[in-house]
Amino acid sequence: MKKLFFFLITILSVASLQGQKNSLTRNLKMYESTWDKIINQGQIDKINSKNFDPNVVLVSSPENIVGIEGFKAYYQNYLTGFSAISFTIIDAFGQGDKIVKHWNFKGKHTGDFFGIPATGKSVDVSGTTLVKMKKGKIAQEQDFMDNLAFFTQLGLLSDPGNLSIIDGLYKAFATGDIPAVLGVLDQNIVWNEAEGNKYAAGNPYIGPNAVLEGVFARLGAEHEYFKVKDIQLHEMSANKVLATLRYDAKWKDGGSYDAQAAHFWTLKDGKIVAFQQYVNTKLLAETE
Length: 288
Description:
With 288 residues, the chain is an alpha+beta fold. It is 35% helix and 40% strand.
C-alpha cells in the first residue's frame, strides 16, 4: 500500500512539474510574440485584455502605471518618439509565473518622446525586465536600464567623462605633447579661432591636420613661449564643456601678453568634434 502511495505521489509530482514547464513555455512564447508585435511592428493595440491582465501594473517612479489604457499610453511614447526601431529580446527565462527578460532597444529619436522634442539622435540601450504572469496574461512589469546612458545618447545629458578628456588635453598641451592633443580630436573636427585673431583667417579648420598646421605649428613658430593658465572647466549640457583660462605668451618679434580667453568644446563618443575660441584679440594684435 505504501509503495502504491509513493508511486502515485511521484506520478502527480512529475505531472505537476511537467504542467508548470508547459505553462512557462506557453507564457514565454506568448510574451515574446506580443512585445515583438507591439514594438517592432508598431501594433500598440496588442496591449489589450487578451494579452494583458485588466489591472496590469508597470512598476515605475514616482508612481506606478496601472491598467491597460495607461500601459498603452506609456508605450505609445516609444512608437511616437522613435523611428527605425529594433527591439530584441536577447534572452527570456523564468520559473512558475515569473519571467526575466534581457532586451536591447535601438531607434532614432525623430518624434515627441514624453514631451521631449526630437533630437535626431540614435540610441542603443539594453536592460532587464521582471515580469509576472497571471492566467497566461501579462500582469506586472518592472524595467531596469541605464537611464544615464539613455539620456546621454539622446544628447540631453553630458557624458561624465567629458571633463577628464578636456583636462587631459590641457595637461598634454602644457607638456608639449601635441600628438596626445591631436589624438582626442575627431577626424572631422570643426575648429574656429576667435574673429579678429590672426589665425581666424583659416576658419574653420577641418580635421586634426588642419588644426596642427594652421594653429599649433604657427603658435610654436611665432612665439617664444605660449602657455595656458588659470584653467577652470565648466560642464555644460549636450556634451559641451566651457573652459575659462588665460594665455601667458610672448611673440618672437613682439611683446608679451596675459590675455583672458574662453574655449567652448563639443564632444561626441569620447572625441572632440567642435571648438570655438573667444579671446581679447585687441590685446593680441597690440602686442604682436
